[in-house]
Write a structure and sequence with these properties.
Layout: H1 6-16, H2 18-21, H3 23-30, H4 42-84, H5 89-127
Helix pairs in contact: 4-5
Length: about 140
């Protein structure tokens, strides 16, 4: 699982965020200019883009939350191990490492919320005339 290595986890998230990172480009290429309005169906383009955005958001959120749950379980087990062996340096070291990773994952969840807000705002600004999703 990608949760054990935080750098790998960040790399996977970065790849999953490509659409959000390039949302302005995606919107500009999906929506027609005034001269091409009759040739392109902007409504279906916006709907398709919205579906892609929502799918990406839910997948990333699930990955982050699953890693938070897995890491929290690991922290819980290490705390129990520390209770039984309070002077074991390896357990203390691993516990601190897992706690640090848990904080980083929780921060990543906050970052994800900001990215989702930004993407949704840009989508709404550009596509509001063509497509109004029920979930916004």
């Amino acid at each position: 699982m990608i949760c054990s290595d935080f750098l790998e986890f960040q790399d996977v998230l970065k790849k999953m965020r490509v659409l959000d990172d390039k949302i302005v480009y995606a919107l500009n290429t999906s929506l027609p200019t005034e001269s091409f309005k009759s040739k392109v169906d902007a409504s279906s383009a916006c709907q398709s883009l919205f579906d892609q955005i929502q799918k990406g958001h839910s997948e990333r959120e699930n990955v982050i939350k699953n890693c938070i749950i897995a890491t929290a379980e690991s922290v819980k087990k290490l705390k129990a191990a520390k209770e039984s062996a309070p002077n074991d340096f390896d357990i203390i070291k691993n516990l601190k490492s897992e706690q640090r990773k848990l904080r980083l994952l929780q921060t990543e969840l906050s970052v994800e919320e900001v990215i989702q807000e930004k993407t949704t705002k840009l989508f709404t600004e550009k596509c509001r005339s063509y497509y109004k999703p029920a979930t916004l």
